[in-house]
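Schema walkthrough. Field components (list of strings):
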Amino acid sequence: MAAVELRSVTKLWGETRAVDGISFRVEPGHLVALLGPSGCGKSTTLRLIAGLEEASEGVIHIAGRDVTHAPPANRGIAMVFQNYALFPHLTVAENIIFGLRVRALDKAERDARLQEAAAILGLGKLLERKPSQLSGGQQQRVALGRAIVARAPVCLMDEPLSNLDAQLRVEMRREIRDLQRRLGITMVYVTHDQVEAMTMADQVILMREGRIEQDGSPADLYERPETIFVARFVGAPPMNVTPLAGLAAAEQAWPAPPDSLPRERAALGVRAEHLDIGEGGLPADIVAVEYLGAETLVEASIGTQHVIARRPGKIAARQGERIGLHVPEGAAHWFDVSSGRRVSGPS
Amino acid sequence: MTAYQRATVHGWLLLLPAMSCLALFTHWPAVASIIDSFYSTPRPRRPSRFIGLENYEAMIADPIFWRALVNNFWFAVGTIPLSIGLAILMAIWVNDRIKGQAWVRMAYFTPTILPMIAVANIWLFFFTPQYGLIEQVVQFFGGSATNWLGSGDTALFAVIVVAVWKEAGFFMIFYLAALQGISPSLGEAAAIEGASRWYYFRRVLFPLLMPTTLFVLINAMINAFRMVDHIVVMTRGGPDNATMLLLFYIYQVGFSFWDTGYAATLTCVLLAILAIIAFVQYGWLERRIHYR
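Field assembly_structure (string):
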């Protein structure tokens, strides 16, 4: 097991700062998700750890060793690529042991590791096939196999599930997670899918424009978002963040912002499941009702702003109907609109 | 007429123009050459008559024919591996992120765009004894004077150099296209596994380029055996047949000596050589190549 640590790492593409002075630490044996919208620098960060790009500034440590300028092969890492990067002219077996052959391991050891990986991943019957004869999920497994046989203490994954269909993605999510735990691998996992990050990771690092917005456990990100961006990115539907400026009616109906936050700069964040619908409260008009079976999403407008409430079961509500919105005490997150940062809220 | 029959007729009608051109200008001349090779050359007082294998017997006894064949063999051996090797090397180089990429690519491709006659004339100047470019460079470094195209020892070599220079840039384009179809993540995956650039090339890149190599190889072989234009400009087969290649010999026999019967015989040999090359390459090599 090995830790991965980045200290003030920056990557410049000409004038643009693709990665802008980020620092974080991945504990040994943990799975860390680098999450963010496209272009946020998460893939570049992964490639910096892999050594496929060189950092413009900062230091990268893997297993306590400074690898900032080390070539990829000397970093003790394995990597699974988004398109799997399987060699199309080699069989599954040859693909898996490619790296072992490069390192000139003897044949007995190669075969042993191949059999072990094949057994773990259920690839036994496919070893003589070519990648083009495999389904997407099977190709994914071969790519994982190549990472496993390397026995590298750190495994890097670049959106490994984005080319699979939804059903398979759910299966592979669990499989990768199990594998990572069983083998005790330290894993850095890049994804733009917040569900993937939340369900798999021990620690989620949410990035935006080359910087870290928040670094914490999935529960931290969901329950204590540090910025409006995090609040809106994590969770589906996203958190309702309503600026109070110009919302005079909210003064009596909703909780008041903390004393340190002037009302005109305050934004109230409420998770959809905490937003109550009923008599009284802040009047709003229903815009749309989505019935999902176990729950119903009610979208309502307060003037120009829209909020979504998630209520269990079926709600008898119709479009255009007037309702009242309640925010229970203790469910309110307060953000400063001018900085976008959290001021206070439930702890 | 049923719809199916009508479609059949339409299909053949659409094929007709291309098929008739192919038959008229490719198949018929080939067949006519084979027939002519069994007849004597018509002369004003002696019309052509059937002479069986006499032309072939004369050919086997003809030292210039053998000289041309041997020269052609060395010409192929000298140009094909070298131009293909250079093409791969240049393609890999210009496929990397380098400065002035477009300019370098264009520079390599320029020899292909230039007309062969112009190219041969430029090289004629390079090879000129005493004040040619190569001589000036050699003399600057204190080397002894060589008449590159005028000496039997160096003339074939000089012609090979020009052919390689001309072909390598052309083949590079095919390799470049093939390389751009290979995902860069393959190289990255290999780098993470610790493969050197050479190992990656040998085990991954080269096998993946094999379909291109087959295509280029066939073209290179055919080009080697039908090389004629810069021989015409630069050496006319001389000195003392040192650069006599098969197609130039056919041209000379056919259109300088007007011995059409014998020229037809030589042509049959050329056709046979090209046919064998094609059969070997498509029949044998292709089965050993990975296609995606």
